[in-house]
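quick one before i forget lol
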Amino acid sequence: MASQSVILRAQHLTKRFGGVTALREVEFELNAGEIHALCGENGAGKSTLIKVLSGVYPHGTYEGRLAVDGHEARFRSSRDAAAAGIGVIHQELAFVDDMSVADNLFLGQELTRWGFWVDSAATHRRAAAVLSTFGVPLDPGARMGDLGVGQKQLVEIVKALTRDSRILILDEPTAALAQHEVEVLLRILGELRARGIACIYISHRLSEVFRVADRVTVLRDGATVCTLPRADADEATVVRHMVGREITDLFARSASTPGDTVLKVQDLAVAGPRGRGRLRDVSFELRAGEVLGIGGLMGAGRTELLMHLFGAWGRRTAGSVTLMGRVLPEGNARAVLKWGLALVTEDRRRLGLFLEESVGFNLSLSAIGEMSRAGIIRGAQECARNAQWLASLQVKAAGLGAVVGRLSGGNQQKVVIGRSLMRAPRVVMLDEPTRGIDIGAKFEIYALINRLTAEGCAVLLVSSELPELIGMSDRILMLRDGTVGGTFERAKATPELLMQAALGGLPELMAG
């Protein structure tokens, strides 16, 4: 570390919401030039601690003491925290999609002429220089709405770095990034450490934590469990502290005997918006009781493939898709869902949930027609089915009436999955189902995948994490630039082979 001076210290922090104690006597300190990882399951108190440190929960709403540079900090708002040099990069992104990358980078700090005209040319030049400085290969003039989630995350990171923060809090910054984008971020963090900037790094990807962190603090049930130097921290130790138990085999894929083909994609080509080709020559078969993993770098076409199969993206220009031997309707998500194909989207907060509505409301959506008669919802049947899924998926919520936006990420994901399973689909497509959730919740979702396939359901699993892809798939299809880069049986799949297929150069494995 560049320095051992303490720049931020939290002592005996306690935060209550009514009768619920979210933080209990939390102790935490951050040194200048240190990358300090904060680990814990969803609901452990990480988000609450971040909001205290960043002024979202102002002084007086919590007990304990917060100090910056040795002086007590009494933030009245996040603006006060920012003035003290604390910047936060949130997991959920907030951008203006119709504005350019450059305009978003300087949103709220616009470059102007004569104090009131926005200087677009200067904004573009400054944005290009900042992006180049941090090695982010994006066009400053690109429309934000046209970027992928991972690219938007990189813009959010660069945006925070332009504000001269001395302390950066990064909340799951790599959750939506492909591996090469992760490498860019980790390189940037190393440069920031050398410049004396301190970082609080929150991630469920422990391999990244051990690569980048100088120390690791674990929270559980709102309390500080331990703080370990990196030399004393390994995955088994941190997981044990996080969940209070051993998880010896996270990727416990059950043995399966695949049945008949339920989904067949043959020579598929799809044009995206404005007629630009996105998918081409994509062929695969998926059998009952099987997990087919789909990998590839960001922009390879993984999400586009699932969205097209679901009838929500692109125009088919060639090829065919059949479900249970029948040609699957194109561009009609309602019909696709009725036929037995369900999708769990990668962006649960924007596309998967009505955040201000209840758990019960969100669970019912896909099957509301089945629980209605003459347009009137049969409330008793709806409540009974919702309660069944709430219990089956072990959703941690106060009840069906709880607002879904207030649940942890892992429990929100369970609600999205439960809604998709309401109609007993034959094929479930999971797009990054464990993105941004803790290890305990991941284990539960893996167990659910095993349960689904044991019952004869077929699963398409998109994941950016190669260990997850290898550990939970029976076969793996790697996409590269919208086409198939290689197909692998699980026993033959290695991270090196999968990355080579994602990057190109393995034509002999196309029919593997």
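fyi Residues 113 and 248 are 61 Å apart (CA to CA).
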